[in-house]
């Protein structure tokens, strides 16, 4: 076999291709526990309305809507990080890797700062 018929060895490209799954796995290990905990808090969030009067609690409602809206966004970003790891450019990959846990964390912060009864 001559060197012309054999593809050239590119250490950086070959290493990046072999370990393509490492970054999405790290994102998964961070995002999924946050989403699970957010789901538990979403199930408990209706209790924040218990001390409200008949007029409602607008601040409590805003926090819950933001937190619940972030859950599917984080889920879609997490799912999108896996196919992007193989085919997308580095800018899109790193954006998805950062935004998936950030959306789950925003949901968690919003759930944890619900003003009870306001």
From TrEMBL:
Write out the transmembrane intervals.
21-44, 64-84, 96-116
Q: Does the keyword Membrane apply?
A: yes
**Which UniProt keywords are listed?**
Membrane, Transmembrane, Transmembrane helix
Entry protein name: Transmembrane protein
Q: Which organism is it from?
A: Kitasatospora acidiphila
The opening ranks of the lineage are: Bacteria, Bacillati, Actinomycetota, Actinomycetes, Kitasatosporales
